[in-house]
Structures are given as C-alpha cells and as structure tokens.
Input
Amino acid sequence: MNAARDPASPEKTKATFDADGFAAFHPLLDGEQMVEVNKQLDRFLSAVVPAMPADRVYREDPEDPSSIKQLQKMFEYDPWAEELIEQSQIREVAETVLGEPVRAVNMQYFNKPPGIGKPTPPHQDGYFFHLNPCRAVTGWLALEPVYEENGCVHYVRGSHRQEGFRPHAPSGVLGFSQAITDFGTQADHADTVAMPGGPGTFLIHDAKTVHWAGANTSSTRSRRALGFIYYAKSAVFDEEAHAAYQKLLKDQLAAEGRI
Output
C-alpha cells in the first residue's frame, strides 16, 4: 500500500493534487479550531437537525433519531455551517487545487457508528454531479482520530486521469447510491493509498478520483467527519439530468423506508 504525500505550499498542494488526484493536510485545522468545530456540530445535531427535511437526514434506523449516518446541505440551515464552507481555509484549498474560483454546493456530515458503520463502496463523486466539464472537488475533514479500524478513506492514486467514469450500479448503501462495478483490478490494488489521520486532518480529491472507506470494526470508536463539495466556475451543471437522478434516488430511499 502506497504512502500518502503531505503537501505544504499552495504550489506543492496543486502539483500533488494534479499528479495524484488528491491532497492531504495533517492537519489543516489546529486543535483549538477543531474543538470549536466539534462544539458547533454537536449544537447543529441537537438544535438544527430536527427541523431539517427528511430527505436531507439519513439514519441507519429511521425510527431512531440518534442513528444519524449522513446529513446533506448543512450550510443551507445554519450560519456556522455556511461560514465554514464559504469563508474558511477549506474553500481556499478548493480554489488552489482547481486553479479557479469555485462555488459551494454541499456540506455533509458522515458518521460510522462503532461496530455498525458500513463500508463506503468504491465510487467517483463526479458520476453523481452531472457536470461538463467535470471540474469539481470533495473535501473531507476528520473530526476525531481515523484509522483503518474505524473506516479511513482510501484513494486510487492517478485514477482521475482516466477518460470518463468507471461503470457504476446501485450499491444498496444508504448515502452512496452507486458503486463501481469493475473495481478490484491489479492497478486498483497497486495504486491504493490509505489516509488515516487525527482530528483536523483534511483530504481533498478530484471528482473523478476513485475512493472508498472500510467499515467501522471498532467496538468503541466512532468515525465522524464533514464533507465539502465545490464546483469550479468553469463547470456547467446539467440541471435536468441531476433532477432526474435526485428524484430516482429519493424514490428509492422512500421505497426502502430509509427516509
């Protein structure tokens, strides 16, 4: 398994990102900043989530309010979340690696509860984005220590350079509706990079980079993280295709009783 490279200057960050399809910071936010982020997130979970639409809140058990697995569009419901995605170092990193202005599209919460947190299947985010050209990034901020045991992210280095997207099909995994169907080639395994890290670790990857995460096999550790999606200014959004896909996804989740 390959080692990850930790960028430093903006120039090195972009060079690493362009070559590998991702970049990592260990950490991007310091200890004091992470204390505040976690404090604000706990407030968000208790005070804001109850008023959010059902299709923005994914739970492992729809009848259990505490079983939140994923939140969508957080920045539309709270000033703290809006400031974090719009005005923090995170947006600056997104603009650095894309080399142009960006617009914030989504802020997400991800959780893999101890012992029951399921694997995140291999996929490419751009498959869901419906952009032409597909110029977008996803940022991922660890809120607590993340290791192989509790489900750290893995990337396939250089996979963003392939033309188009790998074939995807329904995964059956809540919050990750599609998965790559031909994953597991010799190249996939040879180019895999595991990305463990402590609180404040920040990862950012190209929309075409193949990535996944393991299950949380720990009996005591959760795996909480925030996600940030930005589209480049030059990316053109196909609203009709995206709306059709979102309707299909919502209907599938409703039919499964997940929302």
Notes: The longest strand covers residues 102-111. DSSP finds seven helices and 15 strands in the chain.
